[in-house]
Every structure is written in structure tokens, then in C-alpha cells.
Amino acid sequence: MSQIKLTYFDFGVRADAVRICLTMAGVDFEDERVAFPKLAELKEAGVLPLGQLPVLEIDGVKFTQYNAMSRYAATLAGIYPEDPVQRLKMEEMIEVCTELLYKVPFAAKDEEEKKALREQFASTKMATWFAFLDKRIGENTGDWAVGETFTLADLSIMILCDFLKSGFIDYINVNFHEDYPNVKALYESVKAYEPVAKYYASQQKK
Hints:
alpha+beta; Glutathione S-transferase Yfyf (Class Pi), Chain A, domain 2; 4 strands
């Protein structure tokens, strides 16, 4: 059996999909969670291939790039579609979620400018991307985002909404997703999905 270790901050977003998928797959892995100041120490030690987190280590080989890790873990969990078209639909949604997070304005000369930039972002690009996700979910005839079964797309959308709800990105409504009925319904379904709910319940006990 492979020895697997995931290293990231004690935070969701860029690692929870991997954590949840590995747990769903019944994989025994080391979930190393480090404090933010630890990142500088790890960089200095040269143990991070690209000087960033997360890092997934499998039998001594270190891998980077969150989406690649998520796809690997989702494959183990059996939530990565084999059908090429269904996979394309899933990948499209995952990339929309990823791009949305990367496009959030962070560089600003002061709080006033940051507030203006983020409010503009929320009312334009963010609204467009959420409307797109809402449309795609509504087009699907199954109960989930893609096809008839739970996939990594569902998990990615839930994690995106949870990140917004955390309030980490100030000046953007924490309940932004609730203006999009299909996204809102999917979010609630994923949170209630037994493997996901069971994972988060286990984290609260720690």
C-alpha cells in the first residue's frame, strides 16, 4: 500500500477536495496541517518542489498543483467520470471554480480601493461565472452537477461556496451563491451527502 502524505494549512479550499476524496476512497493518509508561518521555514529548507502548498507525497515522491491532486484523489474515490463528455462537463465546472478564485482582486493600494475592486468583481465577472454554473447545473437531468452520480464537480462547487461563506474574501457577500437557485440547491445537497457530511463531522471531533 502506498504511503501518502498531504501537507497544507489547516484550511479548506485548496486541500479539502483531496482530503475528502482520499477519505471516501478509504485511503489511509497523513494529513499534515501547518501554520502559515511554517511556510517560510519549509521554503527555506527546500522541501517544497515549487515553494508552495499544498504538496502531496506518494511513496517519497512529491507532487504539486491542487487540481492535479484532486483529480488523482477523485479517481481513487470513484467520482471521476469515465465517459469523455461527462468528464469534459465536470472539468469545465472545476476550471470555472478555480479561475473564479484566482481572479479575485487582492492587489490594492488601500482598503477603499480593495472594497471597490471586489464589489465590482462580484457584480461583473463573479456574477457571470456563477450564472454560468447555475445554468450548467440546471441543464443536467440528474440530481448532481454532471450526469447521474456525485463527481468532483459537485465537491468543487461546494468548496468554492464554503470559501466565500468563510468571509476570508472581505467585501463579497458570504451568501453570494444563494442568488443562484441551482447552485444553492446543489451546495445543500453536497453538504448533506453522507460521505461529505461524515468527513466534516469527523473533523469537528478533533
